[in-house]
Each structure stands twice: as structure tokens, then as C-alpha cells.
Amino acid sequence: KKVIHDSYNFSNSIKSHYDIFLSYSFYDIDYAKKIYQLLLKHGFSVYADFIDNSFSRKNVNKVTAEKLIFAMKKCDSLVYIHSKSSKDSKWCPWEIGLASGINNFKCAILPLIEDYYEFDRQEYLMIYPVIELRNTTTGIEKLWAFEGENYNSLNEWIKTGKLPQKLS
């Protein structure tokens, strides 16, 4: 048997490596494009299906799932844009579950709300840190991954998968 990427010509449309796989509900595509730009601005390489020329939402089938698996294997982590729409998506829960296995649970949640304390997430999403944009002590905007009082810069979290510091 051939491996998935040998059976299909996926490799021509995407890079060989990405820092982040961006998971989002199609109903949140406008937000996803803005978050994609924000992640790029902060120096991350990001895979999103809307940048993949081989990906089509008009014909979703087994090959679609195989393309997503192939792309996910090229990513160090997954950022899950969580919204009311993502709760109803068939693909978002599948993507975060798959990425958890591929990337040893290196997935983070980016909620589309102001106050993450009011953020109601499904139980299985509680095992992942939350991403937040905040200023450093020097006033520079930076993306952070945190869980409770433990945090790390998103960049360091992607590299290490750890949240060693306490929020001050």
C-alpha cells in the first residue's frame, strides 16, 4: 500500500513545515483570516485550508480528510479558534483530536470572546491552554499560552509544550 501523500499530489500546494495548523469553523472564516494575519505578524508560519490551493470545500470527502492529515503532520502545533460555530462543526473536534495525537497534545484554544473566564468550553477542551494577546512589561504586544497561573510565550510553548511560569 502507498502512504497517503504518495497516493495523492498534496505536497505541491503546501510548504514542508509550519509552526501552527489553524482550526476554525467555516462560519468564522473572516475571524480566521484575521487571526492568520495576526499569527504571521508575530512571526509564525501558519497552515490554514484557505491558503492551500489543493483544498476545496465544494467537494468534501475522504481525500479532504487525508489532505488535512497530511498538512497536520507538517505542523508543530494546532490553534483551535473556539466559538459558538466551532461547537457545532463536524471538523473542528476531529482536527483537535487528531492533532493531539500527532503533536502530543500541543494544541491551544483561541476563544473568540473578550473574557476567557466566561468562556464555556466542552470538557475535552479543558486539557488545552488558552491563547491571549497581551502586553509584556516593556509594552510590547505578545501572544501567550496559559492555563490557570502557568504561562509561556506562544513561541516557547510551541517549541517546548510547557507552561512553566506563573502569571504575575
Sequence of strands across the biggest β-sheet? 2-1-3-4
Largest sheet: 4 strands, parallel
User: Using only CA atoms, what is the Rg?
Assistant: 16 Å
Shape: globular
Round the mean pLDDT to the nearest integer and report it. Answer: 84
Structural class: alpha/beta
Kindly, what is the distance between the CA atoms of the first and last residues, rounded to a whole number of angstroms?
54 Å
- % residues in beta strands: 15-25%
| Low-confidence runs of at least 5 consecutive residues | 1-11
Q: How is this structure best summarized?
A:
It contains six helices and eight strands, in the order αβαβαβααββββαβ. With 168 residues, the chain is an alpha/beta fold.
Considering the chains and any ligands shown, give keywords for the structure.
168 residues; four-stranded antiparallel sheet; 31% helix; globular; disordered N terminus
Structure characterization notes:
The radius of gyration is 16 Å and the shape is globular. The N terminus is likely disordered. Helix content is 31%, strand content 24%. With 168 residues, the chain is α/β, with parallel strands linked by helices. The protein is built from six helices and eight strands, in the order αβαβαβααββββαβ. The strands form two sheets. It has a four-stranded parallel sheet with strand order 2-1-3-4, with helices on both faces.
Topology (SSEs and partners):
Elements: H1 4-7, E1 18-23, H2 29-41, E2 46-47, H3 62-72, E3 75-82, H4 84-88, H5 91-102, E4 107-111, E5 130-135, E6 141-147, E7 150-153, H6 154-160, E8 165-166
Parallel strand pairs: 1-2, 1-3, 3-4
Antiparallel strand pairs: 5-6, 6-7, 7-8
